[in-house]
Amino acid sequence: MSDSQVEGAASTSGLGSRKRRWTELLAGRVKRQMYSPGTEQKLQESAVHLLRRHLNLNDLLLEVEGAPRKTLCLNQLIDPEACTNLSSSLIGSALRDQASRLGVPVAVLSSRMVASSITQICVSDGEPSHRVLLSAEQRKKLSSLLEVAQYLLAHSMFSRFSLCQELWEVQGSLLLEVVWQLHIQNVVSFQELLESHADTQATVAWLFRNLCLLCEEMEASPYNDIASAMLSDLVQMFVLRGFQKNLDLRRNVEPEQMGQLAFVVLQRMLIFALEALAAGIQDGSPQHKVVKCWFGVFCGHTYDRMISTDSPKRFFSHTLTQVLTHKPVLRVSDAVQMQKEWSFAKTHPLLTGLYRRLFTMLSPEELVGHLQEVLETHEVNWRHVLSCVSTLVICLPEAQQLVKDWVARLLARAFENCDLDSMVTAFLVVRQAALEGPSVFPSYADWFQASFGSSRGSHCCSKKTLVFLFKFLSDLVPFEAPRYMQAHILHPPLVPSKYRSLLTDYVTLAKTRLADLKVSLENMGLYEDLSSARDVTEPHSQAHQDVEKAIAVFEHTGRIPSAVMEASIFRRPYYTAHFLPALLTPRALPKTPDPRAALIESLRRADKIPLSLYSAYCQACSTAEEKKPESAAPGMKVEAVCAEGPLGPLAAALRELRAAMTDPTQYDVVAARVAVVSERLDAALGRAEEDGSSGGSQIQLSVLTPGLEQQEREVADLLLTCFCQNLIVASGFASPDRQGPWASRLVTAMCGRRLLPVVLTRLCQLLRHQGPSLSASHVLGLAALVVHLAQSRSVLPEVPVGLPAPAEGLSVAEFFSSLLTFSTSETSLFCLKFCTAVISYSLCKYSSLSRDTLCGCLSPALVKKFQFIILRLFPEARDPLCPEDTADPPWRPLCRPSADWQQAALCLWKQRTFQELLKEKEFHLTYRDWLRLELEIQPEVDCLSDTESSRNFNYSENSDLVLSGCPGNRDIFSRLQEMAAGLEQGPAAPRSCSPPQGHFLFGVFRRRLQALASGWDVAARLQRQRELLVYKWILLGLPPSIVVGRPQASQPAAPDCTEFFHLVNSELRNFSHGSALTHDLTVHFFRGLLNACSQSGDPSLTADLVLTACQTECPLVLTSALLWWPRLEPELRSRWRRCLQGPLPQELQRLWEAQRFGRSCLLPDTASPAPGPAWLSAAALYFEIQRAGKDRVKSQLERLGCQGEELLVFLFFFSLMGLLSSHLTPHGRPHQAVDTPKALDICAEILGCLEKKRVSWLVLFQLTETGGGLGHILLRLAPDQYVRLLPFAFYSLLSYFDEDALIREDAFLHVAVDMYLKLIRLFVAGETSALSTVASRSRERRGQGDPVGLITVARRFLLRSIPRCPKESFSRVAKVTRRHSLWCVCRRANESAVDTALPLRGQPGGVALALWPLTCQAVVASFPVPRPRVSGGCTRLSTVGFLQLLATSADYDPDVRAALLSRQQAGPDADLYREPRLF
User: Fold this and answer.
1) What is the pLDDT of residue 54?
2) Which tens digits make up the pLDDT trace of 1093-1128?
3) Which of 260, 683, 762, 911 could form a disulfide with 716, with the two C-beta atoms 3.0–4.6 Å apart?
4) CA 45 to the chain's CA centroid
5) Torsions phi, psi of 365, nearest 5?
């Protein structure tokens, strides 16, 4: 054998002992095959096929690698861990090297490697059969692998097709997220992967299974965002490919594979969801999670990136068609029987949610047209169709009219062609829509009567149409609910007399059916609503409702309701068997007959109650009266249990509504939640019937005594509370115009026939009778509710407010306005708050709508009330408005916890939109409106003072606004008054006539005032003040010439002002504040002066004579002019220049100089010289100090020099008047410029200047009218009350006295004792109560107006000062005591008072004993006859307040002091600060 043969043999024998390597096999195969073109390609394909089908890639690569080397081993690439540690270029190089060794394309090998790695990743966390999402670790590995795949793809080293083939081989282990990641990373798209599989059914099954797993896993997955993105991308692709424009599934044209696959997947998911709903699914179950998630893909934001295409719209339309036609197994008869269970509230929320989402892509017109098309061309699932109709009318208010029009077309077609299908559709659609309540659709009874109750109905065309109608109604009888048959019988179609038999036959058939159902027409309630398709109410239950309704009607009309009278005659069985027993329910009768008792008595007198039944009722009521205490508690317990039952579901539904509206993304759910609330309201009110139409009749409501049953009140409170809370929550994150439709829809649910009277009655109770006690959130919520109810005024009935009810009532908007009153200050402020809230909400809610819409939401009466109250309460609102004010309505500030209602009202008043609204004619506040509103206010509880009221009256009389915006009206009004006054006064007096005696009105005033009771008690002062207010109104309404008479024809002569001066000095002075009249009266006087000057031959002389007379006869007029000079001067100068020309008269110039002097004194420069008289300049200076608000004026006053000594005394007097005014006047009034602390500081500064200049000021506390001294002027500048309260001012300044200097003055002890005695008399007479009352109302003044404390301090001051006074002072004290008649009351004390004081000055307690008789006698002198018995200089007093004065000194009366201290420790006695009652 040759060597070669041996070698070959050896080789052959060697093959049997070892396995040949992959490369040796390939090499041998290549050598044995003949080379030919294409052989290499064929060989590669065979190798790839072998590689893909039969070999383990990992084992193969191990074999190819051979012995380990330092180069990269290809088997490392299959491990996902390797991809995270190696660069893509290195991996690509290794794959290229190994592919050349294997002799296969590198793209095939790379795809196989990536597929193997993906498989390892998917199975790394266990069996993936129930998962679609990767874990975090898996996602990290996949990300690295996809980076390698993208590199290979970019360098043409990767095959997408090969990867798809490899992945389908391992589809059982393939996770859906991996496919999605391949798609979004542009490795392999969805479409490529799905189209690469030849078995479409298997692809659909795999997609369906994974989509269900994805939907199920999404809710609980920690990677919800990834799952949502996956589902969104998949659905978008399926919709885009499955519903292309050129795809026509109805044609026998083979569609493209991807489009068909996408269509089938979407169809299968929808069918699965619908079948799951039909089978019934539980919340939280896997099927429920899948259906909920899948229906969520119909949200509009899923298709945001597909706006440019029509695919989503076609998809939604197709889905709606599939829902409506899914398994049409129900017959029409089934629908007639079962449709009451398919209302919106009873339909599964997932299905109604799907409807709502489908509606977003289609317009209401398209939806109604689509419904019509589906019903005409398909067999339908009636349950889905009718539930879709309910959702349509609930969620799309625009579709309600479209449905009505559609039904009308169906009826027309039905009677035109005797088309039974159209007839069936029309009746089913109407009944279904009517199930949702009158706020959505007319009741069935109303629709049936409107459609067939007149000759305009389509059924009246011919006998054929009548036969068709009654044949159809007869066919319905075996299947429909009793309520529908009752509606047909009680509201029958209009039938010509010759065809009356058709109606008679149907009525007989319907009554027979009702008898079979044990429902009798005779047992129907008197006020029963026929709009419901629900079960019939039991007669006894309906009877209780009829009784309550009859009582309400009787309460308003005062007559027995006609329905009750008719029932007693024509429906005797129901009346006697049900109505009367319900009315005559035994109870404990009230002492004063209530409406129920009055109705029973009226029926008894009308012989409508059998005598035996009435006797039994009276006997049972007597028994109930005896058992009342024992049975009271159980009755309350039963009511509580009953209240908890129906209110629980309603409260839960309202909470769900709030949860939906607080999330801006869930506004599409609001309609569903409101529908559920409406459904729960029926059960909560305890009514079996549904609400009928709310229009067509008046609401019976008692405004003066609104009453509700316990259950009704609880339901109303729950609804109103929910509305208020929802509004506050919604306003926290959005303005009213961006809060969505929740409010209007909830209000619509309140507008049912049964619920609306309950809501209106409760609102009447709250707004009219409890308004001031409502919180801010309640005011805001109820205001918004009123706005939405006003918006629905066209569908709401009128509300009568009178007793008995008028023929025409008020609209709902006007009714709410009528509930707002101004009778008291509290109700006025509430009215301001409520009107501000209503108008602000309307402007915010409807700002973008037309002016007509905005006007329709506001009641003209309410807007007029707002104008009236803001102009009345806030003088700043009367100022001209800035046209540039563009502030927003103050709704958001009102929603804050610390809302400032006054600022909000003023902000609204100045708002430009509101001012433009007031230009509408219906919102004009006319003079008639103003007068009517002003008359509603009760003067005794008015929040304005007399001065403010008169100022408001004068403004209203002269306001263009009140006079309808016409300037000519004011002039005409003034001219008419001047003509009337001219006729009364007559022509100018001739030269020989006697001086004029003044206008006759002053004589009338004087006689009426003399007839009034005199005195300073509260009743007398109030009566006098009211009378003077009337006189003031009369004077201000008449021409100014009444105040200042016309001059005589002879010259020189001053106009006669005597009567006016007398009225001012005697009456008006006592009702002024401080040292000035009100602005309106001051202006009126000077207008009269200018008018008199214009009729005089020498105007300047006339003015000087009048003003000179004022200095001595009526100085209050001049001080009033100085106070109001900044506002008075422009008018004076303007009128003088216009009518009289020349410079101002000397006396007017003197007023100007005085005002200039006062202003210059407060400037740092040298002050102007003070014009005479000094009291005039002092008044000007004090008013300037008040105006400037300065309390540190000592440095300016010291610059007055010698001329200022007399002026300082007068200035001190005016500051004392200011101090008393600050105590007597509530802070914040326009005339109150400074508060009490500042007024006290001003007095102290002036007092310091006087003491520094050693100017005596005690004379101010010894003023008298006689002698022509200071008293003649100053006592005419202050009210009598202020003069009497000077002792209070004296001792208020006690801490600022320079005691050493005062004691040296002879008059000091005389004045101090006089002021002390007068102070005690003021306290005993109760006149200091005004000071303590005002102080107690203000936190800042609390403790500053304490008369008891002041008397105590004064007594201590006297006890301390008397021992230091010179002996000469005591002689003057004796004169004081005589003047106060002390000795007449207490002789022994009188004889020894001064004598005892002198020797006891140095002994402890001696002075106190000396002053005690004076104190007692001062008290006794204040008492009316008979006076208390006085013994031994002591008066037996029992008032704790006065004894407290005596107990402050330990050595005076220890026992009394101990008793008072023990009482003080027990707590303060409020009686100490009231008007004392000593005996």
Assistant:
1) 43
2) 888 888 888 889 999 999 888 999 999 999 888 888
3) 762
4) 81
5) -65, -40
Nearest to 368 by CA among 305, 413, 324: 324
DSSP3 helix / strand / coil % (the chain, rounded to 5): 70, 0, 30
**Residue 323 clears pLDDT 90, i.e. is over it:** yes
In tens, the pLDDT along 793-848 reads 666 767 765 544 444 567 788 888 888 887 778 888 899 999 999 999 988 888 77
- State residue 798 phi and psi, 5-degree precision: -80, 160
Which tokens sit at 1265? Answer: 């009218």
Residue type, 1289: A
Kindly report, residue by residue over 225-268, the tens digit of the pLDDT: 888 888 988 988 898 888 887 544 444 444 578 888 889 999 99
Distance CA 1427, CA 1385 (A): 9
Contact 95, 152 (CB under 8 A): yes
In this predicted structure, the answer to whether residue 374 has a pLDDT above a threshold of 90 is yes
Q: Are 355 and 387 in contact (CB under 8 A)?
A: yes
CA–CA distance from 1366 to each of 304, 1377, 1402, 1409 (Å)?
104, 18, 14, 19
Query: Tokens representing 412?
Result: 């027309």
- Residue 303 structure tokens: 């298709």
Is there a cis peptide before residue 1426, judged by omega within 30 degrees of 0? Answer: yes
Q: Packing angle between helix 286-296 and helix 349-359, nearest 10 degrees?
A: 10
| Phi (first) and psi of residue 449, to 5 degrees | -65, -40
Token output for 657 = 């509504």
- Report helix angle 1115-1123 to 1146-1161, nearest 10: 50
pLDDT at 818: 86
* Per-residue confidence (pLDDT) for residue 1445, from 0 to 100: 38
In angstroms, the first-to-last Cα distance of the chain is 163
Torsion of CA 790, 793, 795, 796, to 10 degrees: 80
* Separation of alpha carbons 1358 and 1356, rounded Å: 5
| C-beta separation of 476 from 444 below 8 A | no
pLDDT tens-digit series, residues 64-92? 444 443 334 444 555 555 555 566 777 77
- Nearest alpha-carbon partner for 760 in 810, 824, 806: 810
| CA distance linking residue 1072 with residue 1078, whole number of Å | 7
Choose the weakest-confidence range: 694-708, 736-750, 1180-1194.
694-708
Q: Is 961 exposed, middle or buried (0-12, 13-18, 19+ CB in 10 A)?
A: middle
- Tell which residue, 281, 284, 272, 293, has the closest CA to residue 215: 293
Q: How do 1434-1435 and 1430-1431 pair as beta strands? A: antiparallel
| Closest residue by Cα to residue 457 from 499, 416, 505, 500 | 416
CB-CB contact of 375 with 425 (8 Å): yes
**Burial label, 79 (beta-carbon count in 10 A; 0-12, 13-18, 19+):** middle
Of 346, 209, 345, 334, residue with least CA distance to 268: 209
Closest of 225, 227, 234, 228 to residue 133, by C-alpha: 227
Query: Contact at 8 Å (CB) between 1070 and 1022?
Result: no
Closest C-alpha among 433, 418, 454 to residue 387: 433
Report the sign of the C-alpha dihedral through residues 1129, 1132, 1134, 1140, in that order: negative
For residue 1371, report the phi and psi dihedrals to the nearest 5 degrees: -65, -35
1010, pLDDT greater than 70: yes
1209 C-beta neighbours (distance < 10 Å), count: 21
Q: What is the dihedral of CA 801, 805, 811, 814, to 10 degrees?
A: -20
In Å, how far are 732, 1216, 1377, 1406, 1447 from 1313, measured between CA atoms? 66, 19, 9, 17, 20
Torsion of Cα atoms, 563 then 568 then 571 then 572, to 10°: 160
Q: Which long-range contacts (CB under 8 A, 24 or more apart) does 224-227 make?
A: 226/133, 226/177, 227/132, 227/133
